[in-house]
Amino acid sequence: MKVSIILAAGEGTRMKSKTPKVLHEILGAPMLKYVIDSSKRSDVEKICVIIGHKADEIKNYFQDEDVLFRVQPMGEDEPYGTGFAVKQAVGDFDDNDTVVVLNGDTPLIREQTLDGFLQFHEQGHFSCTILTADLKDPTGYGRIVRDDDAKIVKIVEQKDASEKEKLIREINSGIFAFNGGDLKRALESLDTDNAQGELYLTDVVKILVSEKKKIGGFKLRDKREILGVNNREHLSNCTEIMKERVNKKFMENGVTLIDPNNTYIEPSVEIGFDTIIYPGAIIQGNTTIGENCKIYGTTRIIDSEIKDNIVIDNTLIEESIIGSNTKVGPYAHIRPNSNIGENAKVGNFVEIKNSNFGNGSKASHLAYIGDADVGENVNIGCGVIFVNYDGKNKFRTTVSNNAFIGSNSNLVAPVEVEEYGYVAAGSTITKNVKEGQLSIERSIQKNIDGWVEKKNLK
């Protein structure tokens, strides 16, 4: 069996945050989730996450994930360190298992890399394999020390390295593969005789070397995969790399991104062929976008379903459905639980909330449609307000097929306008409008002669 141990117990003080470091988000998901997902998509069969700082918060977030959690003791008398963290999972793997140790703050590691790494480890019959990389500036990383035959003899941490060792450019990524039995025995031999007074997982390598075990080194091709997150700048750097990956995948699958550097799409999103997305778009969560859509400007779409052949212009859409061949925007707001039909139009500065808006219906500008069921081929005029709230409770309005709501009208819920019902402009409707009726509700117009002169306004 292949077992993944993910180290996620650190406090992350350099993040300067009340949020646990591994819960800081990259493209809408905690960085720890990327590591878990890469493990799941690889050949790993069991995942164990080591947590400590704000352990309950992390467990609650991932309660639906098929992973094991082991809590690292955080008392003053505990030795801490990566070796101490891995010891918390010794009961989760057997002697014949292959164990890969990952870090919860290195979200860019790919499943393809993990599979190649584990295959190299097992085919080489290594006791331990280290994922390494050559860096121009290795400052801060542990160095890989090799003998004259290029065999790895130890890993030395930056703080414990001699001046000569600090010149080594091959670094330890912090990702290891072990034979389960060898790892268990070596962990029992760890001590805190180092600058930090911690149990180093890297000292396991030294122990295995002393036992004449075979140590392998697997060099990364894309060094960015081992970039860790220790502060907000690192978080931003990893986000930019992940965004590049995600956008590239969409473009490879037939989506046009006019300016990928200025387009934010989360990896959970699905987009169909021939859709064109212009700069400034933000597409988040469990959003699906169909084929041949055009998304312009600073549009933001969250957890929504966008069908085919839709044009969206500078619009906010939240948790809603937009039917095919519909045009939305510019500057519209589709609030949660709204269902916009096919061949519809939701125009400038129109807000729709918790409503059904039927096929072929139009609200071209400056309207609020809240808690409503609007049928097909309905025209909503400029300035129409669906008055849904009496200060305590909200009520629904029904406007049936082929109705016409004139400009600057108020529909005071609960109220119904039946099929082919017409509401004259400027009316405030408080009673139902029957089929085919014209409803007018206006006070009598009164024109006062000479009023301007009397008020000395001329």
TrEMBL record:
Catalyzes the last two sequential reactions in the de novo biosynthetic pathway for UDP-N-acetylglucosamine (UDP-GlcNAc). The C-terminal domain catalyzes the transfer of acetyl group from acetyl coenzyme A to glucosamine-1-phosphate (GlcN-1-P) to produce N-acetylglucosamine-1-phosphate (GlcNAc-1-P), which is converted into UDP-GlcNAc by the transfer of uridine 5-monophosphate (from uridine 5-triphosphate), a reaction catalyzed by the N-terminal domain. Residues 1-232 are annotated as: Pyrophosphorylase. It catalyses: alpha-D-glucosamine 1-phosphate + acetyl-CoA = N-acetyl-alpha-D-glucosamine 1-phosphate + CoA + H(+); N-acetyl-alpha-D-glucosamine 1-phosphate + UTP + H(+) = UDP-N-acetyl-alpha-D-glucosamine + diphosphate. It is found in: Cytoplasm. The active site is at H365 (proton acceptor). Binds 1 Mg(2+) ion per subunit. InterPro entries: Bifunctional_GlmU (IPR005882), GlmU-like (IPR050065), GlmU_C_LbH (IPR038009), GMPPB_C (IPR056729), NTP_transferase_dom (IPR005835), Nucleotide-diphossugar_trans (IPR029044), Trimer_LpxA-like_sf (IPR011004). The gene is glmU. The lineage of its organism: Bacteria, Bacillati, Bacillota, Tissierellia, Tissierellales. CDD domains: GT2_GlmU_N_bac, LbH_GlmU_C. Its cofactor is Mg(2+). Residues 233-253 are annotated as: Linker. Residues 267-335 form the Mannose-1-phosphate guanyltransferase C-terminal domain. GO terms for molecular function: glucosamine-1-phosphate N-acetyltransferase activity; UDP-N-acetylglucosamine diphosphorylase activity. Homotrimer. This is Bifunctional protein GlmU. In the N-terminal section; belongs to the N-acetylglucosamine-1-phosphate uridyltransferase family. In the C-terminal section; belongs to the transferase hexapeptide repeat family. Its EC number is 2.7.7.23, 2.3.1.157. UDP-N-acetyl-alpha-D-glucosamine binds at residues 7-10, 21, 81-82, 142, 157, 172, 230, 335, 353, 368, 379. Residues 254-458 are annotated as: N-acetyltransferase. It comes from Peptoniphilus stercorisuis. Residues 4-222 form the Nucleotidyl transferase domain. Pathway: Nucleotide-sugar biosynthesis; UDP-N-acetyl-alpha-D-glucosamine biosynthesis; N-acetyl-alpha-D-glucosamine 1-phosphate from alpha-D-glucosamine 6-phosphate (route II): step 2/2; Nucleotide-sugar biosynthesis; UDP-N-acetyl-alpha-D-glucosamine biosynthesis; UDP-N-acetyl-alpha-D-glucosamine from N-acetyl-alpha-D-glucosamine 1-phosphate: step 1/1; Bacterial outer membrane biogenesis; LPS lipid A biosynthesis. Keywords: Acyltransferase, Cell shape, Cell wall biogenesis/degradation, Cytoplasm, Magnesium, Metal-binding, Multifunctional enzyme, Nucleotidyltransferase, Peptidoglycan synthesis, Repeat, Transferase. It comes from the Bacteria.
